[in-house]
Amino acid sequence: MASAPKQHLMTDGLILRNYETVAETDRFIAILTRDKGILRATARGAKRVNSRSGAATQPLCYARLSLIPGREKYIIEDAQPIEVFFPLRQDVERLALAQYFCELALSLCPSDSPAEDHLRLLLGGLHYLAAGEKAPLLIKAVVEGRLLCLEGYAPDLGGCSHCGREETPLWFSPTAGTLFCGDHVTAGDAMQVSSGVLAALRHILYGPFERCFAFSLPPSDVAALATLTERFLLAQQQKSYKTLEFYHTLREGI
């Protein structure tokens, strides 16, 4: 008895990474998709000059995909680019930050389950990076903070964890994920948080999703916010990111 034909999966996805393959013409990729989260797939013949799926299966390309389920990974039957974020490839700092976002997605986003908000967040970050409309550090803070929130790592920002005091100055512990007032701060990693930075962090984590990038801060507060979200992410994940280290190396040279 003939087996039933495998059903196609039609979805939108952001190409996060290419992997080395034995086949000279094939491309093995990781994709953040709207319907199935992180997927691994093979784009057969994508490295050929005349390949129809070549451009749409490059990293940082947002594409409309037709996928066929395989034994261990999907096969890309067709891929059509929706957005290629070309300006990112003209600025090494912004490109490095975009690659960091992709590494974060691979580390934090779900597999084989819907990830529409994760995809929207990454696409929003890449859009603002490519457009040059906002400071890269502000975009970085939003992606780090909201992605952690989506994965259940949201900190408690309601006030001092001991007495409930909400008036600044307050201190934030990346390890504990809580605030402390001056009378109760004991955490060795606690960072003082200004009222502007605290308001921005609450907006990123708790505000309407469609407006998480819709705020502005003075440059000094942007830098403080980005340091806070990065330290919180690293403390919660307890791992390093090579793309983040490379990004900081580039910034040190500016």
Highlighted features:
about 250 residues, alpha+beta, OB fold (Dihydrolipoamide Acetyltransferase, E2P), 2 domains, five-stranded mixed beta barrel, four-stranded mixed β-sheet, 6 helices, about 35% helix
Structural commentary:
The protein is an alpha+beta fold. It has two domains: 9-84, Beta Barrel (OB fold (Dihydrolipoamide Acetyltransferase, E2P)); 136-252, no CATH class. It has helices spanning 92-108, 116-131, 136-150, 195-206, 219-237, 242-252, and strands at residues 9-19, 27-33, 37-43, 62-69, 74-83, 156-160, 170-173, 178-181, 191-193. The strands form two sheets. Strands 1-2-3-5-4 form a five-stranded mixed beta barrel. It has a four-stranded mixed sheet with strand order 6-8-7-9. A hairpin with a 3-residue loop joins strand 2 (27-33) and strand 3. The protein starts with 8 loop residues before the first strand and ends with a helix. The model has no long low-confidence stretch (mean pLDDT 90).
